[in-house]
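can u do me a favor
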């Protein structure tokens, strides 16, 4: 059994990773940004002996101490705002600098095994602009591409920085997990931005349905992939897209209408020109506009084949998410 530092432990994915680690018998050290976040995580895992440390992606303070005595680093922490920032650097710099800060501290502490959480968004918008084809783990999003969001750019640049770092320090053994849009059950009411699309749909807050699609994966599968990859040296040096299948926003709305016939879920599919127009004045529509005309499907078959599991179907992940966020 290993002692594992999980960064960003109050995040939606990270809390499931912590549970998966504890269930497998590992010792967990969890990084949070504040006492409030610590209390949220501690309430989920009482009596489990989790050790907490406070870390910030933008500061060197505490990283050396946090990694002392650790066997494995699982780095999930990265900014994920609900709406695009005015300045993309507000996302890019913490993501890139925080990843490098974690890797440098790990290497200094002799922690050579690292699992990094990236995203399918670092894959599905390549520089060849072949928007219609299915992507693989060999593809890379063009960080400054015309359809690349600030979040996708931040994750792409952070992952590239991580691979460059391990190229320069070959003793580091890195595996990267690239989840699609992560749905599934929230462990508490603090689920951040991950389930916002579902919340907007099921509450009726999304009055128009953009014709955009996204790769979908259940958070329980994402956690499983992280922990199983951590223990499998055959995954070192590889990226593992985690994608159970693609759903469009109109398809999601239809699934939710069937499950919740009394909910005021939008039916009208917005024309692309309207979404592009709204994106100029409504920040939340900017991401939707950047996804129009894109096939975001990424081949996620390597993860279950290598790590021995079957994906939870995308519709089941969606319904589990809706059950978590829906208000009576």
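np, heres the sequence
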């Amino acid at each position: 059994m290993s002692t594992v530092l999980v960064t960003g432990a109050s995040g939606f994915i990270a809390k499931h990773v912590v549970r998966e680690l504890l269930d497998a018998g590992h010792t967990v050290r969890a990084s949070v940004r504040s006492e409030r976040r610590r209390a949220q995580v501690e309430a989920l895992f009482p009596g489990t002996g989790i050790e907490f440390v406070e870390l910030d992606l933008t500061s060197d303070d505490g990283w050396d101490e946090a990694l002392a005595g650790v066997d494995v680093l699982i780095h999930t922490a990265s900014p994920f705002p609900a709406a695009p920032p005015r300045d993309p650097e507000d996302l890019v710099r913490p993501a890139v600098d925080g990843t490098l800060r974690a890797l440098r501290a790990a290497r200094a502490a002799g922690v050579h095994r690292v699992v990094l959480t990236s995203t399918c968004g670092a894959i599905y918008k390549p520089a060849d602009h072949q928007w219609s084809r299915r992507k693989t783990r060999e593809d890379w999003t063009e960080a400054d591409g015309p359809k690349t969001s600030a979040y996708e750019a931040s994750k792409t640049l952070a992952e590239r920085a991580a691979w460059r770092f391990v190229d320069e320090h070959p003793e580091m053994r890195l595996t990267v997990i690239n989840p699609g849009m992560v749905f599934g059950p929230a462990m508490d009411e603090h689920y951040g931005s991950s389930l916002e699309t579902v919340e907007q749909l099921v509450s009726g807050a999304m009055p128009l349905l953009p014709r955009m699609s996204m790769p979908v994966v259940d958070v329980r599968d994402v956690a499983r992939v992280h922990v199983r990859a951590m223990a499998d040296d055959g995954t070192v040096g590889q990226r593992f897209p985690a994608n159970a299948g693609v759903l469009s926003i109109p398809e999601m709305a239809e699934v939710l209408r069937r499950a919740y016939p009394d909910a005021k879920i939008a039916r009208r599919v917005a024309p692309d020109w309207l979404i592009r127009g709204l994106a100029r004045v409504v920040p939340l529509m900017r991401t939707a506009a950047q996804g129009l005309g894109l096939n975001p499907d990424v081949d996620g078959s390597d993860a279950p084949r290598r790590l021995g599991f079957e994906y939870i179907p995308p519709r089941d992940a969606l319904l589990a998410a809706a059950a978590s966020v829906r208000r009576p």
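The chain has one domain: 3-187+215-245+297-311. hope that helps!!
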